[in-house]
Structure formats: structure tokens, C-alpha cells
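Provenance and format

Records in this collection were gathered into a single text stream. Each protein contributes a sequence line and a C-alpha cell line. The two records reproduced below are adjacent in the stream.
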Amino acid sequence: MTQHIGIVGCSAEGAALCYRTICVEGATILGQHAHPEVSMHTPSLADYVACLGRGDLAGVGDLMLSSARKLEKIGADFLICPDNTIHQAFAYVTQRSALPWMHIAEVVAAEAVARGFHQLALTGTKWLVESDVYPEKLAARRLGYERPEAEESAEINRIIMDELVYGIFKAESVSYLKQTIERLKQIGCDAVILGCTEIPLVIDDGNSPLPTLDSTRLLARAALHRAVGRMGDSTE
């Protein structure tokens, strides 16, 4: 039997990509059209943004816990959150949650080590880039990282929050992301963390100046492996 995956959603595009990845790639393991049972709950993104805007991580955590409790009631065995930014409340959440969680940054860090990377470019919202979500997990694996400069971070945040979360993909915005990644490559990065779950919708190994670490799909695949009992292929 496979385990029931609970998805604690935040922004629609990233959550949808995570869900779709689990369902589509499940067939490669379980057979045609097959995938583990998956349930998702998503409160209004506006509620999350309001909490982030005022630095209320307990409020972020309470929203995540509300989703977690609903998913627990309908039978989820473990939980994932396909949103890097709100992982800032992860410790608050896991201390109060009855179900186990997988941490997106741990999954990405494990993949970076497996692929032999050492110095990672970090992209994402301004809240994510300025937080300890990735630095803490990268340091545990002895991985280095570089953040975008303040101006770059502000523009990437605008692209994410004003465009990508709405499914708006502009050529000039893709060019800006590529330009930022190229600069980070020039200062020594050997891979880039796509640390917003919407960035993989416009940046991948086909157009990125650096090899990509796609946080959305990596988390989805790790959850899939856990659900089918292949724990050696994923990170808790």
C-alpha cells in the first residue's frame, strides 16, 4: 500500500505543479495512470501575504496548521508544503502538528550534494532570500551559497508576486531571472536553487546559465518516493 500525501498549499501555481508532478510521475513507479492518494488544502494566498508583510510567522504557522489538521482528518499520512517562503514557520508548525512533514530545503540540499555541487545561487521571494530557510539546511551539508543583491531581490520578488503566482510569464522577466543567475555564476556559483515554487515554470536546465535545483519537482519526487516506500531515494 502507498501512503496518502497531504499537500499544504500556499500559492496556486507552485502547488499545482507539485500536485501534477506527483500524479504524472507516479505512473513511472506504480504503473499506467497510477499514483498515491493525494489531498491538498490551500487557504487564501492573501492571508499568507498579510502575515508575511507584517513579519507574523506565528500567523503563517497557524495557517499551515489549519491546513494540516484538515488533511489529517481526511487521512493524510504525511505532509509537504510546496512553498519555500512559508517554511520560515516550519519549526513552529512541526512542534504542533500530529503528522510528520518533509522540509523542502532539506530535499534540495540533499540533491545538491548528490549532484556534486558546492556553491549555490539562491533565488526566491525577498522573504525567502533574506531568511534562514536555506542557509541553515545548506550549512548542515557544508554547502555554500550566494544571495542576489538587494535590487535583484526586489525585482525577482516583484516578478514572482505580480506575475508568476498569477500564471503570467513575460519574456523580459525571464530574461531578468537569467541575467541574475548569470551574475551569480560569474561570482562562483555552480548551480541555482529555484527557491520559489513558481520559478520552475519559466526557468529550467534548458535556459538557465547554471544547472537548476527545482525545489517544486524535487519535493514532489521525494514525497512520491516516501509514499511508495522508497525512503532511500528521499529525505525526511
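Adjacent record:
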Amino acid sequence: MRKPFNFKMFSLSDDGCAMPLSSDAVILGAWTNPAGCSRILDVGTGCGILALMMAQKSLAVIDAIDIHLPSATRAEENFRASPWPDRLKAFHASLQAWLPPQGASYDLIISNPPFFRNALLPQSEKKRLSKHGQALTMDGLLSQVSGLLGSGGFFSVLLQASDENICCAAAARYGLFPSGILRIRPAPDKALHRVCMRFGRASGGLVVEELQLRQSDGIYSDAYRKLTVDFYPAF
């Protein structure tokens, strides 16, 4: 069994999850501001890291869903062991089939999308998920998000850098427009490889930033330390 990951206010395990915990997800959680949100949905929760980060940063009630049963089970265990078990709930469900409790809409939907994570899975796991008809496309993700998001809500997502324009085009088809973009570069001599994007119902006022994860010597950058200071105990 892998050792748990210890953050400032919670610990978690990713044992049995489809994908291990990554710094990419931590960046998305640290960058996303849930202030004022009362209901949040985490799509493709994995071990539950994004839901836990949103719980630390808000007073919201948070639903977390995952099509991979062991991941949903692990997330629920991590939630129960956290300081916020009354506000966090994990469900084994696909986004396509998800019906919010009491039919409520969400103020924030956050996701490290299943189709992005699943691209890195072993072929055997990809086939298993495909047999269950649980594949999720970019267009499918944005369509479902648009239907679940409240009128003043926003969508925060982590993608491969090459998918930025594809995501913007798909979002526009469902009345969602970018208000924030954080492009992530792993090191000074490396190309952009990930992007965090924030979408809402209103267009205009787009803020574009760039984050370098590590310095040339491999040490985490000051910008990354500053962004994640509320979560990591120490570097």
C-alpha cells in the first residue's frame, strides 16, 4: 500500500485509483477560487484531491463523481477521514447519467476530465470502461456541464495544452466562454504541456497567465510555491 499524501489540513491515499495523484491536479485546485460557492461538483474525482481542496477553500457542499468504482470508493474514504465529512460525498457515476440531489444546479464544476486521465490508462482498463459505455468526449463534457451549471456559475478544468482551442470552441457551442487561462510550463526549456481554464456564461474580461512549475535545476519555482502555499506543509 502506498503511503498517504499529507497536506496542511488533510491527508489522502490514491491506492486503487485509476490514476495517481499529480501536481497538475494540485495546480488546478490551488488556482480555482470557490469563494461564495454553495454547491460544487467534481467530475472524475479520482482520489478526491480537487473536492478536498475546494472544501478547504469554501463552505460549499461538494458532490464528487467517478466512473471508476475503486476511485469513487477511495475518494469517499478520504472524505470521511477529512475535516469536512459532512460536506463531501463521492458517487460511482458517469457525468452523462448524473442527476444532482434535489435537482440542484452547481455554482462551480471542477474537473481533471476522465477522457484526459483515461488516455493514460492501460489498454485493459480502457477496454473495461468502453464496454460500460462510459466514454466522455470534450463535446460531451461541455454539454453536460452547461446543463448542470447555474446561471452565475463557472467551470474550472485541467487539459493538455494542445486542447485549449478545442475546448474553447466546444464551450462556445454551449454558451460558455473563457474568463481565465493558466498555461503551465514544466521547466524553462520545455514547451507548455497543461492548461487550466475557467468558463462562465458571460464573454469578455479574459485573464491569461503562465506558470512555470520548476526551475532549470529541477527545484519547484517560487510561483508554484506561492500558488500552493495553503496546501503543502513544506517544500
